[in-house]
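Wed. Picked up where I left off yesterday with MFS transporter. The coffee machine is broken again, so keeping this brief.
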Amino acid sequence: MPIRSERRADPRAARQDGGDFRRLWAGDAVSQLGSQITLFALPYTAVTALHASAGQIGLLQALYTLPFLLVPLPAGVWLENRSRRPVLIVTSLLSAALVLSVPVAGAFGSLGLAHLYAIALLGGAGAVVSDIAKLSLVPQLVAADRLASANSRLNVGLAVGGTAGPGLAGWLTALVGASNALLLDALSYLWSAFMTGRLRHREPPPTTRRTARDLPKEVREGLRAVFGTPSVRNIALHAAINNAGVQLLNVVLVIHLVKDRGYGSAAYGLVLVCGGVGAVLGTLAAPRLIRSLGYGRAMLGTLAVTVNAFWILPLADGPRVLIVASFALALGITSAGTGVGGVVSVTVRQLLTPPGLHARMNASYRMATFGTIPVGALLGGVLVEALGARAALWTVPLVFTLSVLPLGHRTVRSLGKAPAHPERDALETRT
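Structure written out below (tokens, as returned):
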């Protein structure tokens, strides 16, 4: 289905685009950098300092992502009638406190796996609420015809964090230890809270106040915004399989490179850095690809090509430098496709969904697509313990190839072909 991009922009949002969006982006970009350090440091600490097994690493990853399944729907309903700005500030401050508790516990010699499990679970819940609030706030700061570029900038911040974060985390880990490296993430959360606090935009109060809210109905409306729109439903199915594959890959990768092959944090970080470089390039290219090919074909065409690089992983063998280079190349290519897909996905959802449903739509999408992440993390641990990390690498390209298949549906392929947009009109009629 085509995307209707001529929706009348809110003049207030257009005015704020030059200032408030840059402030939001500046805070988010730094926070994403810090978050990547934590995503590196937590499993690395578990493996090297606490001697965690593959199953325990899988459980750690699963606990971080479990809130992605349980939290989104209630969070989306809760956020729909609340200002997003204060929520973003509070979640940033709470996240800083959580991260700081790890080096504090380490300094007193009381750090254990149970502590890391608690940090993963609570941190994941905070990330869910923060992301839903942020994605629902962006369309209020940016005119509709600039959403793709704005989402590209946000995803570039995420990708740059993925690029610099692992390398910085590896360097800091070697210098001061993995738990102490988390101090930088805490500072990044404080910076994000400060920049969000500087936003001048204030969301208007709801036009109507309900004395009694019909929560089941509100949840159904959010779910319908995702599953009742064929193109969004197929993109969500792709993302659900893809996200499970990413977590499976993360578990297998750290065990294979760090534990089995004995590579240090620098080599492991270099592989992740190259993945981040690919994501940056794909994200930057996304707006131009969308303009040239349309939303659907840009996403399908890119991912159908780049996903094949995952076959390099189980085939890589030989000297250490060759293995590291092969893994780095594979992650760089595949992450470029993911960068394009991420920009298309979020922009399509924002354009197809009425503004009054953005929080609930984003929550429903997060539940559907991130709810599979704990499964992928646990599956990675099970496969490594049953088959070994090297053999488990063969499942990675199979999972990611399967994730591309839903994008071949005509409702996705035709996105961006013509100015009319019946899908969004239908949503507005039903809600």
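Quick read: The two ends are 20 Å apart (CA to CA).
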